[in-house]
Design brief:
182 residues; alpha+beta; Aminopeptidase; 4 helices; globular
Length: 182
């Protein structure tokens, strides 16, 4: 699906960019693993158990799963028209500028089928250009198609920029999440 992001830039100017949002392919895995660094940069941090090989296996399993979707936002390569399917050119079809992983993971007694966004990240140089919105919208569409009644995610308290983004995108409620390393 071809999406065009047009949004206010960080300096108040209007910036436009073209990008594709599509389901990830196995060829995208190295770029996806590298892109996790965007989540680990401050105010985030790398989980103590992070292992790139294990992460690559997990991303491959999510790509192959019926109950998950891995989405990538890809900027067209130089000279390549937006909307060109990945793999048509002999070289890399574009640069990953954002990604999201979503899972249909829980049938809640109270709320019905839940879709969970585990990861949503955009290249810091490409933020505020509609990429995150396009990825979130695509995750919502995937969840609706699968019959989910709601989509949730959590976000570390320090990620105030992300919180503003989610609020702009109309999140209907907030909650506090607790977790334990096992």
């Amino acid at each position: 699906m071809l999406l065009v992001g047009i949004a206010g830039g960080r300096n108040g100017s209007v910036s436009a960019m073209r990008f594709d949002v599509r389901a990830a392919e196995h060829a995208d895995i190295p770029a996806l693993i590298a892109a996790y660094g965007w989540l680990f940069a401050p105010p985030g941090s790398k989980p103590p158990s992070w292992d790139e090989r294990r992460a690559a296996v997990a991303v491959a399993a999510a790509i192959d799963s019926h109950d998950a979707v891995v989405l990538v936002a890809v900027a067209p390569s130089a000279g390549e028209p937006p909307g060109t399917p990945a793999g048509e050119a002999e070289d890399v079809a574009g640069v990953v500028i954002g990604f999201s992983t979503a899972y249909q993971d829980l049938h809640s007694v109270r709320f019905g089928d839940r879709a969970w966004v585990e990861d949503l990240a955009v290249d810091p140089d490409q933020r505020s250009r509609g990429v995150g919105k396009a990825l979130l919208d695509a995750a919502k569409a995937w969840a609706r198609e699968r019959g989910a009644t709601h989509l949730e995610l959590d976000s570390a308290e320090a990620r105030t920029d992300a919180h503003r983004f989610y609020e702009r995108e109309g999140a209907e409620y907030r909650s506090i999440s607790f977790g334990w390393q096992l």
